């Protein structure tokens, strides 16, 4: 008999991970609950929150990681957002920037639209998918004790990392990050010492 | 394509394609994201050879909209190369550009117009410019080889000097008639 994998509390996991990130880490969040989770963990200057552009979190993080090889870049997104742009894993697999990490908070549901079941509960194995696209360092997180190891890998910038984090379908109170993308872009660039354009 | 390896020397790329790469290089482009097209082949080859440029081959064009925006967040200039059919794939992702007012340049080789043999290229080719404009992207166009370099430079000025979102449509006439039958 196989044990049902433990599903983590999303808010607690994200707070633990963000608290362990090095100060120079840059974060991109996919639309919906992952944005709320990251914002609830404390607004950091190097964070870009998506409120739309579904499927865009991973490729946005890829362009950023290539541009900033000296800093860890972490995309935090959900299974629905990620699945819409799943081909991006092939694009990432072709470049494998060592400073890039994708963290997929996977509750196997489309939470924002009323908890309809998603593909990851209907047959898709994201770790196998990521490995198949050439991201060898793909792991599944089912235990809060793995957070420290993930943070260590993010800090090391030694290989593209992919973490599927099994979370429960709990819906913590919404913590809404700023929706002004222009202001977010400018403050993000200012944190890197860059002008607006 | 010929079959053997040593038969014909590789023909020189059309000079307008060299002008495109020179313009991108001169203006400090460091990432070139693309879905390939014959009209972009020289720029893609050069990007892959150039250690100062990240070449990013995409599975679909909308990824490139986000890659280019991410590059800008991190302080690099990037450009997206695609064929006209790819513009339709990008439509919702273009909202990222407007919401963040990201500087954005895409070079689009046109299909579905001059001497087009494949009718399936028509629906998207005929609406490429309108689709871009509907989503807030300014459209420039070049149809003759000697205007390509200058048009791309003008677009680069608008994008990185003024923070605009610009597409340059490269007319199908530049690429010429596609050979549909392969000989021996």
UniProtKB/TrEMBL annotation, chain A:
One Pfam family hit: TPP_enzyme_C
Designated name of the protein: Aldehyde dehydrogenase
Keyword Heme: no
Domain Thiamine pyrophosphate enzyme TPP-binding: 48-155
InterPro entries, alphabetized: THDP-binding, TPP_dependent_decarboxylase, TPP_enzyme_TPP-bd
Keyword annotations from UniProtKB, A to Z: Decarboxylase, Lyase
Biological source species: Streptomyces diastatochromogenes
GO terms assigned for molecular function: carboxy-lyase activity; magnesium ion binding; thiamine pyrophosphate binding
Superkingdom of the source species: Bacteria
Automatic annotation (TrEMBL), chain B:
InterPro entries, per database record: THDP-binding (IPR029061), TPP_dependent_decarboxylase (IPR051818)
Keyword Zinc-finger recorded: no
GO molecular function: carboxy-lyase activity; magnesium ion binding
Transmembrane intervals: none
UniProt keyword annotations, A-Z: Decarboxylase, Lyase, Pyruvate
Official protein name in the record: Phosphonopyruvate decarboxylase
Upper lineage: Bacteria, Bacillati, Actinomycetota, Actinomycetes, Kitasatosporales
């Amino acid at each position: 008999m196989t044990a049902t994998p433990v599903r983590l509390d999303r808010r607690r996991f994200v707070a633990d991970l963000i608290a362990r990130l090095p100060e120079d880490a840059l974060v991109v969040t996919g639309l919906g609950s992952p944005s709320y989770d990251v914002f609830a963990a404390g607004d950091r200057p190097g964070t870009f929150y998506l409120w739309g552009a579904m499927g865009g979190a991973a490729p946005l993080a890829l362009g950023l990681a290539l541009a900033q090889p000296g800093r860890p870049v972490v995309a935090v997104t959900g299974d629905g957002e990620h699945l819409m742009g799943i081909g991006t894993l092939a694009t990432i697999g072709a470049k494998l920037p060592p400073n890039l990490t994708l963290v997929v908070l996977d509750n196997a549901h489309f939470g924002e639209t009323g908890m309809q079941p998603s593909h990851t509960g209907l047959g898709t194995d994201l770790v196998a998918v990521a490995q198949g696209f050439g991201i060898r360092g793909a792991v599944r997180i089912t235990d809060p004790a793995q957070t420290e190891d993930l943070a260590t890998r993010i800090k090391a910038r030694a290989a593209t990392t992919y973490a599927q984090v099994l979370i429960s379908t709990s819906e913590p109170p919404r913590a809404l990050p700023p929706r002004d993308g222009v202001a977010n872009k400018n403050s993000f660039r200012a944190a890197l010492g860059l002008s607006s354009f | 394509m010929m079959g053997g390896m040593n038969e014909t020397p590789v023909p020189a790329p059309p000079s307008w394609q060299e002008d495109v790469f020179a313009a991108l290089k001169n203006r400090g482009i460091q990432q070139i994201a693309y879905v390939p097209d014959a009209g972009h082949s020289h720029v893609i080859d050069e990007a892959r050879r150039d250690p100062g440029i990240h070449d990013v081959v995409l599975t679909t064009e909308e990824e490139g909209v986000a890659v280019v925006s991410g590059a800008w967040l991190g302080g690099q200039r990037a450009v997206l190369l695609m064929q006209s059919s790819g513009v339709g794939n990008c439509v919702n992702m273009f909202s990222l550009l407007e919401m963040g007012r990201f500087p954005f340049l895409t070079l689009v080789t046109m299909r579905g117009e001059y001497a087009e043999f494949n009718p399936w290229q028509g629906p998207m080719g005929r609406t490429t410019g309108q689709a871009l404009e509907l989503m807030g992207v300014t459209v420039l166009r070049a149809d003759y080889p000697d205007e390509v370099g200058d048009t791309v430079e003008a677009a680069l000025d608008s994008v990185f000097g003024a923070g605009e979102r610009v597409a340059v449509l490269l007319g199908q006439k530049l690429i010429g008639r596609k050979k549909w039958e392969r000989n021996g």
